[in-house]
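Hi there,

I know you've been waiting on this one. I reran it after we fixed the sequence typo, so this is the corrected version. Both the input and the resulting structure follow.
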Amino acid sequence: VIHAMLAGIGIQIALAQLHIVLGGSPQSSALRNIAELPGQVAHLHGAAALLGLVTIAILLAWPLLPVRALRAVPAALVAVVVATAVSVVAGLGVRRVQVPVDWRSALSLPELPAGDQLGAAAVAVFTLAVVASAESLLSAVATDKLHGGPRANLDRELLAQGVGNTLSGLAGGLPITGVIVRSTANISAGARTRFSAILHGLWIVLFVTQLGFVLNQIPLAALAGLLVVVGVKLVNVDHIREMIKHKQATIYFATLAGVVGINLLAGIGLGIGLSFAMLLRRLTRVRVRAEEREGRWHVVVEGTLTFLGVPKLSGALATVPMGKHVDVDLNVDLLDHAAFEALHAWRVTYEKNGGRVDMDQLHEAWSSTPAEARRPAEAVEAPALVAVPAKAAQLPQPHDALGVPRGHAAPSPSRAAPRTETRRPA
């Protein structure tokens, strides 16, 4: 879900800023940006498009330079400086950043709403607090996936955002929230600690208060070209391949469609809801086969064995005649307490009636010696949850009649079953 959220934000950013690169204005939604794109291409502004393409070209080519000292300079800084210099020297008539030269004039003291507007103000405050907090937390979690440094302290993130919004409101500013674009830009520039975010703010304060006339020379097309590259990089093709490989593509693309087609929170909600639905479906999927081969009975259990699969398991075990040698192959990724109790109780009862049961994969998790395996079910402490080894969670390999992977020698009946290290959670 988080990877799809990042990709959706990247697509939204790239589509919106592409209009500015072409000399136009972004639309109100990603779908409208797509619909208006052909017309924008047909009526593009040549100077703005040139500056945007120059910016994109520098961003893509700078990391490929052979001189390491040059690569140490952030590509985004070089691209914006070059595009700005070209626009000023050539006298290109393009839209530029607009920052008030006298920043003090933009400050305003807060005012309490009128009595009949207190209710609407309270609703607005609550809505902004919830939406901004959710976006900041999601951005923090997503940013953690883009670097290998310390993880975010989410409680501290919310506390800092509250303090920042209080100060911003007292100065007449807009509400603030954590966003993925500036975080990605910091990481791409080589940031390693949280001081990069603090310095980010300090640089903005310095330029807005002291160097506003410099910012006013930057073409919007150059900044838009930078954001197009950042947005495209948020769509990680390797992550898409991993989702397809692990059969999670449905959740990924549903979340992506929700973020791009509706909004961020709707896309996240859609992805989480679909994840829960698929999880519940997976918890009900268990396959049990019982058959006789070469004088021995084989019971193969595959999937997720929970209390929901106990009726199917009990029905299959009931078809096994008494007094036989039974091999139970548990190729499951989860075994809960109820399923363990049902399986163990059947084993104890079956062995009391003259049969023999050999458990594969999880036998050693239940008993350390064959004698303990034959103790009554109530005398054995059943785990609430059994963690299955990685081998058991993999796709089943082709087995021969003895339940041994093909190409391997079958163990002798007198030889002890191989031990499998299986941990019981506390």
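Quick highlight: Residues 362-426 have pLDDT under 50 and may be disordered.

Best,
R. S.
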